[in-house]
Design goal:
Helices cover 80% and strands 0% of the residues. The chain contains five helices and no strands. The protein starts with a helix and ends with a helix.
Length: 157
């Protein structure tokens, strides 16, 4: 695989991943303000579906293509070749990926708890589901790391 094709695949996967994450932040903010039980359930289920079908695969493809780019350029065999900005970008990117994986776990648990909620009650009125919702919201801490990695990618590479 040529370097240009690999770089293109990496950038496209990254765009899809970050686009999903940005959309999910908006979705979570709308969910928080929604009073309708049916809409809360729909947003919770939609977040789960997006994580499983789009965001998760895009995250995996981003990690794989990023690793292949490092390997093709010889950075994996000799880390002394790494420019400082690349090291910082990789660290920030891996922090974001780890936080996103944790968020995915929180999203799945919250959705499972919502599926088991009896009746037509609003999921966020249940204290357990609300706790998992707060856990999902807490993963927004990854946004600054994503912005730093993106800034380094645009301005240093």
């Amino acid at each position: 695989m040529t370097l240009q094709v690999l770089r293109f695949a990496h950038v496209m996967a990254l765009i899809v991943w970050l686009g999903c994450a940005a959309g999910e932040i908006v979705m979570e903010l709308v969910l928080w303000r929604t009073k309708s039980a049916a809409r809360q359930r729909a947003y919770i289920d939609l977040h789960r579906i997006v994580d499983l079908t789009v965001e998760g695969p895009a995250l995996l493809l981003t990690l794989v293509t990023g690793t292949l780019l490092l390997w093709q350029r010889g950075y994996l065999s000799d880390t002394k070749l790494w420019p400082r900005w690349l090291e910082d970008k990789i660290i920030c990117g891996l922090v974001v990926a780890a936080i996103n994986i944790v968020c995915g776990f929180f999203v799945m648990v919250r959705a499972r708890k919502t599926d088991n909620l009896p009746g037509n009650a609003a999921p966020l009125s249940d204290s357990t589901i609300q706790s998992w919702h707060y856990a999902v919201i807490s993963t927004f801490i990854g946004v600054p790391f994503a912005m730093i990695a993106l800034w380094l990618a645009v301005n240093k590479s």
